[in-house]
Amino acid sequence: MSTNNDQSTNDDHPLSRRAVLTSMGVGALSAWTLTPAAIAMSAAESGPTPAEKANVDLVKQFISGWTKKTYDPAKEMATYLSSPCLVRAIEDKPALTQPADVAQVFIDFMKSGSRVGRVDFHRVVAMGPLVVTRRTDVVFVPGKPDVIYEIAGIFLVKDAKIREWTDYYAT
Q1: Residue closest to 163 by CA, chosen among 52, 101, 106, 84
Q2: Residue 60 · residue 135 · CB < 8 Å
Q3: Domain 48-169 class?
Q4: How far apart are CA 140 and CA 45, in angstroms?
Q5: In whole angstroms, what is the distance from residue 131 CA to residue 53 CA?
Q6: pLDDT score of 9 more than 80
Q7: Rounded to whole angstroms, how far apart are CA atoms 10 and 42?
Q8: Is 143 helix (H, G, I), strand (E, B) or coil?
Q9: What three-state secondary structure class fits 134?
Q10: pLDDT value at residue 43
């Protein structure tokens, strides 16, 4: 009678089915926990920190200021942007690195009478110094229909100033 003692089981092999499935499960769980949805869920569970709330308030005040009829780009950019900064108000344009340069873009835009007439925030999320906005900007252009932009804005806030800002347009 022969015995099968010389055969090892699959579970004894260094790359057993159990080991592979376990490591796949751990890998999938690790990957999922790093997804934006999981990060957002984790942040939502704990709620924003006081610093994150302050960053959100700063960014919303900065953007909302654009709608003031008395908006002064030079003053506002100096107040809210760090120097130096890294700003792409239009995603495919070169970055601007000084608040005065960003202000000049707004000044040139406003020369024709155009202005940001309304901003609707759909979602604002903070994670540490990073603030992401999902918003609609409505631009009033004299003698023309309003121009509507769907925008995702990403802001990096350091020392109560916006150090980096990039807007991405869906329209």
Answers
A1: 84
A2: no
A3: alpha beta
A4: 39
A5: 10
A6: no
A7: 38
A8: coil
A9: strand
A10: 54
Give the sheet arrangement for strand 147-158, strand by strand. 81-88, 161-169, 147-158, 130-140, 115-127
Average pLDDT, the chain: 84
Q: What is the 3-state secondary structure (H, E, C) of 36-87?
A: HHHHHHHHHHHCCCHHHHHHHHHHHHHHHHCCCCCCCHHHHHHHHEEEEEEE
Q: Give which of 151, 121, 127, 122 is closest to 55, Cα–Cα.
A: 127
20-62: pLDDT as tens digits: 444 444 444 444 445 556 555 555 567 999 999 999 999 999 9
Q: How far apart are the first and last CA of the chain?
A: 79
pLDDT given for residue 147 in this prediction: 96
The rounded Cα 137 to chain-centroid distance in angstroms is 16
CA distance 112 to 24: 59
* pLDDT, tens digit, 9 for 90 and up, residues 82-115: 999 999 988 888 999 999 999 999 999 999 999 9
Alpha carbon of residue 116 to chain centroid: 21
Residue 7 pLDDT > 90, yes or no?
no
Q: Count other Cβ atoms within 10 Å, centred on residue 30.
A: 9
